Amino acid sequence: MSERILVVDDDRSIRETFEQHLGRSGYEVATAPSAEEALSRLAQFEPGLVVTDVRMPGMDGIEFLKRVHSEVADLDIIVITAFDDMKTAVSAMQAGAYDYLVKPLDLDQIDLLLERCFRDRSLRRRAQRLSAEASEGHELHSLVGHDPAMVEIYKLIGVLAENRATVLIRGETGTGKECIARAIHFNSPHAEEPFVAVNCTALTESLLESELFGHVRGAFTGAVESRRGYFELAGEGTVFLDEIGDMGAELQAKLLRVLEQQEFYPVGAERPRITKARVIAATHRPLEELVRNRDFREDLYYRLKVVEVFVPPLRGRRGDIPQLAEHLLVKIAAKLHRETPRITPDAVRLLESHDWPGNVRELENALTRAAVLARGPVIGVEHLSLGAPETREALSTTTHPEDDTLDAAEAAHVQRILQRSEGNKRQAARILGISRPRLDRIIEKHGLAIPQ
Predict the structure, then answer these.
(1) Would you say 30 and 41 are in contact if contact means Cβ atoms under 8 Å apart?
(2) pLDDT surpassing 70 at residue 387
(3) Burial readout 128-154 (b: 16 or more C-beta within 10 A, e: otherwise)
(4) 177-186 helix and 107-135 helix, angle to the nearest 10 degrees
(5) Domains of the chain (ranges plus CATH)?
(6) Residue 136 has pLDDT above 60, yes or no
(7) Residue range 53-74, pLDDT digits in tens
């Protein structure tokens, strides 16, 4: 679907020029000779951009601009002004115009401006979409665990959500550092602003600089148009810099300027731009050692660690694993479009016995695999590729008081026979001394898994 543009001008020749030129460029164009008529067409035409003259009979362009912004969200407006009307152009920009065009109109300039406007609009929507996706499930209550270290983190999140202090989150890979950053943002007064996460190890330094700060046209080969970076697109939201310890020295100096003066230079720009975004950084690396080895700036280190949050590894809070596993299974089941599976006590014990070098991320991956392999509604030890085989076998054959009911004993015994027969139902039924249909009824009754 082509982009829609509404052109508002009392000069018929201007309207026809826009209509013909932009139509040839692939845009869908509608025109209106007055602001009043344009207002009546907004809801029906639903433009992505409005181009309006400033001086028109009746309602002028400035008042029209204000009316549009009060009635329609996320709609860019470009104003047209005369050479001797710069004061009005400034007023239009202050009222929220995206940019302005000066008469006589230059068609090449119009094309470049429209391309930039729609590109920025796309980036803005992408940032909003990423922010919306990031907000899902990141309310404070979505962080799981009652370990004293986690309780202290919950308290810190509550405090940090009410201010704009720079935060440094530290912990091993997979402990949930980004989850904590999002919880801080989405419980703050700026939750409606974008949350933009950037992995400092995923991009080259030059590309990371362009992503963070943007660039101007011609700044480097391939920079055919100017582009705004995340520090500008984030508005008053949050820029989350993951793995900050891997950022290069030159970029560290530029980030320091952002933290000290709230300004930055887009690549190739001669004038700085202001940012109001909050910075939350995270790392699994020992920054103090990096500072001693001069691989990380000491002044930046202290600017980042205004408030530090230390996230414990999963092996340091094993008591949280059962609750965390249940929480993750709800999330996994939603992704797999199925009912949330139940996890057996033996499987929970196996989870608690594992060291989890990959922390919560590894736990989620293990449970996802188990949920896929378990065709029934129960996840057992046999579905978890953890620990030594003898450990899994011992857990799967160990009895516990809560398993002493006749139903539990039947389910456990049949599951062991299925495991021994490697999922061969005919062989399992022969070992059990029952018919194949009865075995199927038992499997269905208890939701047993068929080993593959």
Answers:
(1) yes
(2) no
(3) bebbeebeebbeeeebbbeeeebeebe
(4) 110
(5) 4-122 (3.40.50.2300), 137-312 (3.40.50.300), 317-446 (1.10.8.60)
(6) no
(7) 888 889 988 899 888 888 887 7
